[in-house]
Amino acid sequence: MTTQLLLAGSGGQGLLFAGKFLAFAAMIEGKEVSWFPSYGPEARGGTSNCSVVFSDEPIGSPIVAQPDVLIAMNLPSYRKYMPCVRPGGILIYDDSMVSEACPRGDIRVASLPATQTAYDEELKGLANMILIGRMLKETGLVAPETIELAMEKCIPASKAAMLTLNLQAIALGSAG
Fold first, then answer.
1. 107, 44 in Cβ contact below 8 A?
2. Quick check: 33 and 23 in contact, CB under 8 A?
């Protein structure tokens, strides 16, 4: 089984980190994985997306043209990639940043106010992980016991305090 994910938004929203977390989780579970970041020249505020492919067999290409799962963190990404989600796929988006309802009836849609929730819960900058939590709830792609192990691999020792905050954000997203 192969699952193709696309995480899209602006630079600085933590999409590359979120994709890296998912890639580590897949590796911990013994899956084949590819992680392919793409971002504009701007350090923050430019376009950014990250393709992650999970598979039980070798992956032929890291390019995701028709994702099974799309996480959209801003309106331009939502508008650009929502039409690309394969029929039967899942769209998860931050309705703090995207006010448009999805016109498609052939995909599953989950929206939540991730940016506003992160702000309200004093988890500024962790809207990405709130959306990852929702994606994990919707898909079951990663076993719950893998989440903390993967997060420990992703967070450098110099930022160890972020482990608990990231796990809290994932829990918020999966509870909604």
1. no
2. yes
Is residue 2 within 8 A of residue 59, CB to CB? The reply is yes
Q: Are 69 and 35 in contact (CB under 8 A)?
A: no
Look up residue 115 and give its amino acid: T
Tokens of 76: 């331009």
When pLDDT is cut at 50, 70 and 90, the band that residue 40 belongs to is: low
Note whether 47 and 24 are within 8 A (CB). Answer: no
The domain total for the chain is 1
Containing structural domain, residue 70: 2-175
CATH number, position 79: 3.40.920.10
Question: How far, CA to CA in Å, does 69 sit from each of 4, 41, 59?
Answer: 7, 26, 17
Q: For a pLDDT cut of 90, what percent of the chain falls above it?
A: 81
Model pTM score: 0.93
Distances (CA, A) of 82 to 59, 151, 161, 176: 24, 28, 35, 22
| Distance of alpha carbon 62 from alpha carbon 50, whole angstroms | 10
Q: Are 96 and 120 in contact (CB under 8 A)?
A: no
Kindly report, residue by residue over 73-128, the tens digit of the pLDDT: 999 999 999 999 999 999 999 999 999 999 999 999 999 999 999 999 999 999 99
**Is there a contact between 155 and 166 (Cβ–Cβ < 8 Å)?**
yes
